[in-house]
Amino acid sequence: MFQTVKLIKECCPEAIIASKVYDEKNYKDDIKTIKFSYDWLIAQVGTKIEKSEVIKILEALQFAVKNKGDQFEVLAPSWRATKDISLPEDIVEEVARIYGYDRIPDDLPTIKMSQTKIDLEKQSERIVKQLFAATFGFNEVYNYSWQSEDLLAALKLQTSNCWELKNYLSPEQRYLRTSLLPNLLKNLADNLRWYKKIKIFELGRVYLKEDGKYALDQTGKKQLAYQPKYLSCLIADNNINDVFSYAKGLLAHLAKVLNIDLRFKEIKTHDYLIPGQALAIYAQDELLGHFGVVNLAISSKFDYHSLVGLVEIDFSAMIKYIVDKKSYQPLPKYPVVVKDFSVILSNDVKWQELQEELLRASKYITSIELFDRYHDRQNKEFSIAFHVNIYNPDKTFTTVEIKKITDKLQEIIINKFKLTIKQ
C-alpha cells in the first residue's frame, strides 16, 4: 500500500494524501484445534516416526503443537487454516510429505476378512431359474401380486383366505395372491391362441393369512403376513401322458439337482386336477405342493384347446430339505451284480411303493432303477422293467447268494403285490 501511494505522488504531485494507511482486520479467524493420537498418526502414515520428529516437522511448518502423553493438539497457521488444514488426515499428509514418501514402505494394509455367507435361498433360486429356462426350455413369467375374484372362483379358491386391499384400483387388483396358478392360467389362455405347446413358470411370493417372521411395527406384538416363495409352472400339450410324465420327470430332475428327497403320493380328489393324474409332493412328512393335469371343467373356463399340466410347490419350505454337503463314495472294489425284472403292473400298485419294498428286501441292494415301461392297449396291460443293483463291499457274491436275494425279490413281487413277472 505504501508503495502504491509513493507511485501516485510521483505521477501526480498535486495529489493529496487524505489519511494514514491502515491495515484493519474486522473478522475473526475460524481456526479450530485439531486433535489426534500419536498411535493413530503412525497407523495412518504406515511407518514408525519418532514423536520428537513429528513435533519438529509440524513446528517447522509453523503449526502450534501441544503434546501431552499420546495425545496431540495442533493449531494450523492462519494462512493455511482456510479449508487447507482442517482435519486430522490433513496433518497426516503434512507429516508424511515432509518426512518423505520414499521412506515409507509400500506394504499392503492388514485387513480382517471373514468367509462369505452363502444365502441358500438366493443360490437355489438362481439354480432353479437356470434349470427351467436353459435346460427345460420354459419361459419365465412375472405377474403382479394381486388377482381378481373371478380367477379365484375359477379354481374354487376362497376369497376369505385372501388379503383384501382397501384401496384397490380395479376388480382385477382386489386380492393379494395366495397361489401363483390363477394368473399363470390366465397367461396361458392369452398365449394358447398363437401356440399349440407352451411351457411357462414363475417363482414369486404369495401372501397367506398367517403370521410371518417380520414385525409389523417397533413393538413387535404383531407380525406381517407370511410371505413364502412358491414355484409354479404350466405345460400345455395335447398328449395327457406326455404332460403328466413330463411334469413328474421335471420334479425328479429338480430334486436331483438340488439334492432333495422328494416323494409323491396319489391325490384321490382335487378341485382342478384330473383324478388319477394328480400327485401330492412331500419332503419327509411335510406336504410341499402338488402336480397333475388340469381337469376339463377348468380348461373350458379358460377356453384351452390343449391339455395342461401344472406344478405348484412351496419353494421356501422345499429349500429346508436341501442336503448341501455331498459325501464322497469310492468306486466299488468288487463287482456290482445287476439283475433285471420285467413286471406287469396292476392299477392298484404304485411303482414307488414297489420300489421301496424291494429296497428293504436286502441290505446289499444299493439301488433300483426304472428303465422302461410299456402300455399294451390291446390287452389293457401296463408293464415296467427295472434294474436291481446288488453289491457287497466286503467280497464278491457267489451265484447261490445272488439267487437267494433274487428269490426273495420274486416272492415280494408275486406274493405281496400279486404281480406277474414276465419271463
TrEMBL record:
GO terms for cellular component: phenylalanine-tRNA ligase complex. PROSITE patterns: B5 (PS51483), FDX_ACB (PS51447). This is Phenylalanine--tRNA ligase beta subunit. GO terms for molecular function: ATP binding; magnesium ion binding; phenylalanine-tRNA ligase activity; RNA binding. Its cofactor is Mg(2+). It catalyses: tRNA(Phe) + L-phenylalanine + ATP = L-phenylalanyl-tRNA(Phe) + AMP + diphosphate + H(+). Belongs to the phenylalanyl-tRNA synthetase beta subunit family. Type 1 subfamily. The keyword Transport does not apply. InterPro entries: aa-tRNA-synth_II/BPL/LPL, DNA-bd_dom_put_sf, Fdx_antiC-bd, Fdx_antiC-bd_sf, Phe-tRNA-ligase_IIc_bsu, PheRS_beta_core, tRNA_synthase_B5-dom. GO terms for biological process: phenylalanyl-tRNA aminoacylation. It comes from the Bacteria. It is found in: Cytoplasm. Keywords: Aminoacyl-tRNA synthetase, ATP-binding, Cytoplasm, Ligase, Magnesium, Metal-binding, Nucleotide-binding, Protein biosynthesis. Residues 29-106 form the B5 domain.
